[in-house]
Amino acid sequence: MCGILGYTGHRESAEILLNGLEKLEYRGYDSAGLAVNDGENINVIKNKGRIKSLREKINNNLPGTCGIGHTRWATHGEPSDTNAHPLWSDDKSVVAVHNGIVENYKELKSFLGENGYKFYSQTDTEAAVKLLDYFYKRTKSPLNAITEAIKKIEGSYCFVILFKDFPDEVWGVRKDLPLIAGQGKDESFLASDVSAILQDTRQVYYLDNFEIVRLKKNDVRFFDETGHAKYKKLSTVTWDSQAAERGGFEHFMMKEIHEQARAVKDTFRSVFKNGEFDLSECNLDDESIRKISQIYVIACGSAYHAGYAAQYILEDLTGIPVRIELASEFRYRKMPLDKSALAIIISQSGETADTLAAMRLAKNHGIKTLAIVNVVGSTIAREADSVFYTLAGPEIAVATTKAYSSQLIACYILAVQFARAKNMIDEAKYKYFIDEIQKLPGKIDEILDEKERIRELAEKFVDSQNAFYLGRNIDYAVAMEGSLKMKEISYVHSEAIAAGEMKHGPISLIERGMLVTGIMTQKNLLPKIASNMLEAKSRGAFLLCIMMRGSEVLKDEADFVFQIPETEELFAATLAVIPLQLLGYYVAVARKLDVDKPRNLAKSVTVE
Ligand code: F6R
Known about the structure:
The chain is an alpha/beta fold. It has 19 helices and 27 strands.
């Protein structure tokens, strides 16, 4: 998500760190900062906004050859100068930058508060920095401070740390987020992304979870989580710098498709505390949930498709009536609105003009609004009554993948928690749903292991003009998203059809060889969709069936079957969409199109 750098060597560090951070700009960020040890003190300069303005603020006035840098993408606390990294202990003897989420920051803060610590930022990171300081003050050893602190920190993290008393050293540790150490001549580096240091060195070490690293200019040393020294093998990076930015993938879209398991896991973990969901930060306690008489889900594009799936799940689990509304329609409708409704507004960017206008309309009618948003501090996030942040991280490709998947997870969590609050499910069922959601990231990765099969299939359809995606219920919502992925990046005309509607018109478009994809995860509807698919087959269509493992329906009649791992049917959209994202992607690649920046599209639609 955020970008991290560390440097110690023979050159002035500020310039090297600024240049490295510029290499990470493509990832998206809202603030940036540096800390440099001048031999006596650690000086920090940081700001909300661009690296360019940070460079101006520093104005060659941050001397020292050992430092750390950061670009922040806000998760806890608004983008601001104060919340920007690096963050420091009270006496600035420990200064650190952080990627990830300290899940138990509230507990850590209260533990540290009891020990006299005060907090100046809204970040989760500050708790970790002060915890490092707490142990450092007691052990006088950076290594011991880190090993003790990571015993207490829960969540995902990559920390890069300066200790004032060790002016030529940079320390790092990671869990679940990348950290790479680089060795140059008389200098060494740390980075969250190899592209940031490639101009200086290609000799790198990839840290594993819980590994600790100490950089000196001629010495890069590793330790395990108990503080024992560890040998690591040096690797040579062969990618060019552009490929490195994309993590070695050909396009950001493919990189982001692969980040979905992580995005889903982070979004889940952000509200999962002590075996249950805690929606207190969304101002949703059980009593307020029980008062909701109606839900309006409002969004555009893929976010609307996530909401479309959510409508079925929310209704099924909670019994609350749900309306899914396109923001651009909702804002001009003159429908009677229920004042005790909850409006769930879904938006990756938090800036989509129609979605914002629709949310304002709901608020003007006195309806409580809950925004599911990816970008912290965005307009929708600021204006909504409460926010459930998805933790997809910055999305670069115009076609959304990981943000969509994170939106689905947020919706599942709301549905399961609402169901429990309304006594619609017992504790065993609640735990079962939690368990099923937790298994999704592993299953996403299982599907991605089979991506070559989809690539081969896609190459057969490189010259396609038309495609249909059929589904019923949640599968119809997935069909909409699959169809959008195909049309927006491959420019193949495609339509999502609620399968029962086929014979009311669209069937006349079916021609020999046309790709018809059936999403077939909802058991009670399998015979229905199977017969719709067969109607297409008998008119010459090529049938691609996306179904759960173990399902036998249409196995003989389908031209291509892609099986997804078995899962709770209510959450099947998360898995069924992955082969469809891959299909759109590979058709676009085979057609040699600009996958990450499709024609006529913008990442954020801030005009009507
Ligand atoms: C499609 C896509 C768009 C967005 C839509 C809403 O891949 O990305 O359809 O989903 O423009 O954008 P947000 O979620 O930013 O409100």
